[in-house]
Amino acid sequence: MKKKRALISVSDKGGVSEFASELVSLGFEIISTGGTKKMLQEQGIPVLSVSDVTGFPEILEGRVKTLNPYIHGGLLAKQDDADHQKQLMEHGIEPIQLVCVNLYPFQQTIEKSDVTIADAIENIDIGGPTMLRASAKNHQYVTVVVDPADYPTVIAELKADGETKLETRRKLAAKVFRHTAAYDALIAEYMTELAQEETPEKLTVTYELKQTLRYGENPHQQAAFYKKPLGSLVSIAYAKQLHGKELSYNNINDADAALQIVKEFSEPAAVAVKHMNPCGVGTGKTVFDAFTKAFAADPVSIFGGIIAFNREVDAETASKLHEIFLEIIIAPSFSDEALAILKGKKNLRLLTISFDETKKAERKMTTIEGGLLVQDQDRYSLEDGEITIPTKRQPTDAEWEALKLGWKVVKHVKSNAIVVSSEDMTLGIGAGQMNRVGSAEIALKQAGEKAEGAALASDAFFPMNDTVEAAAKAGITAIIQPGGSIRDTDSIQKADEYGIAMVFTGVRHFKH
Predict the structure, then answer these.
(1) Most-buried pick from 32, 180, 295, 410 (CB within 10 A)?
(2) Distance of CA 220 to the CA centre of its chain
(3) Is 137 among the residues known to form the active site?
(4) Selected catalytic residue, list 13, 210, 275, 343
């Protein structure tokens, strides 16, 4: 019998010397290329060059080295097929029983801020994926390893039985196809952006497993949490957990909702969220001031909620947070004193997220049964629009500040959405009702007497003047809404009747 052959060519060289050494001790002849070959030789491991196998030198700056029948014939031949074996003998091709390959670091290359197009293109691996796919296709006979974490399993089975189990080879092959699919998906995304294609005929996306979850939205649903390679760092997927038990499916959704709202503010802000909707938002000169207002906005719903800050949490704020049952606190950082206080609660999750990144907005993907909806994130702000004021009265400076806060928050509330606010806090929030006046009634009832002199924000236009009527009776003095209803005149007239200043933004903020 001829020696067994293993082809090793890796960019991630962690543990590969030990792996190759074990293979040699098990009777494998090692074939390798470039930097991998050099490293193995320096470790005293006998290595055969790919060029020695193919009888052809590497050409085109190394772009062509393994794309050769002497390599791929050895990978793709069926070992129990007499005709295949005959052809190998006729052409002097020896079979390869094991392939250990991982790919050019395309992701790491395009992560660099100064990457050039030429560098990115040069780091698109061709020979590596081809060898991996060939070996994975022929996993009935070939063991293919793409992940260093699998080295111990392969060596253990080779030592025990002289070969790997078919079940193992099949799992390794499946991992290879996931790996190459993800690799190509990143390249496709990069090239699609480079070509400025807005709606490509094929949408290829890839995500990496961050953690398996105990269950999904409900205990009878299985779930997992994946993160997007090269995704926004200002996200829950890239958060660092400092304390507390593992995040759940609902925790992650709610935490994301809180984060998206607090990112709207440049001044110190605190956001409380329950079931994907804000229950309290406050701003102030300090995080303590901001949280005090967010808590006062709805001291009932905040129980068991999630809080997001856009400034470091200090000891004073931590002491107040410690008094309440909360699931998660998100902040750029926590002072040492704040951490000591909050870690007193065993299960309270503490997450830190950098707010420094100014990465472009990602596209939002929503699954439906059998399909996927894709859209831009809603980044519209008042500065982007053409503001009109159709009422007789203009907003005062204080009303403008209240309107701005309400408009920032309302786009993060489930439609139909109404937010009642002052200059620095929400006073009442109505979410997810089937008609707009129903949401208004909920928000106004929650605001109570505080609605007197406050502002009201609506995510979409008023189809009738009943919302204006309800707002006026509660004491609202300023309203912000998109406008655009065929019955806008009715709402304008009603606002004028009560002396309400009303602002049209021209853009709605539906959130389903």
Answers:
(1) 410
(2) 24
(3) yes
(4) 275
Are the CB atoms for 412 and 261 separated by under 8 Å?
Answer: yes
> Residue 475 — φ and ψ, nearest 5°?
100, 5
* Averages of pLDDT over each 10 residues, the chain, 512 residues: 82 90 92 88 89 79 78 86 86 91 88 89 88 93 94 94 93 95 92 88 90 92 91 89 93 94 94 94 96 95 95 96 95 96 94 79 85 87 86 96 96 94 96 92 95 95 92 96 93 95 92 85
Q: Which are the contacts of 64, defined by CB distance < 8 A and separation ≥ 6?
A: 58, 127
Strands 277-283 and 240-243: what pairing? Answer: unpaired
Which residues are paired to 282 by β-bridges?
Answer: 270, 425
Q: If you search the block for the tokens 């959704």, which residue do you land on?
A: 253
H/E segment holding residue 306: strand 305-309
**In 61-116, which ranges are continuous DSSP H helix?**
69-76, 82-91, 106-111
Pairing of strands 277-283, 326-331: unpaired
Q: Which of 13, 137, 171, 343 is catalytic?
A: 137
Cα 385 → chain centroid: 28
Task: Give the Cα separation of 122 and 62 in Å (integer).
Answer: 11
Helix (H) / strand (E) element for 259: namely helix 249-262
Residue 169: CB atoms within 10 A of its CB come to 24
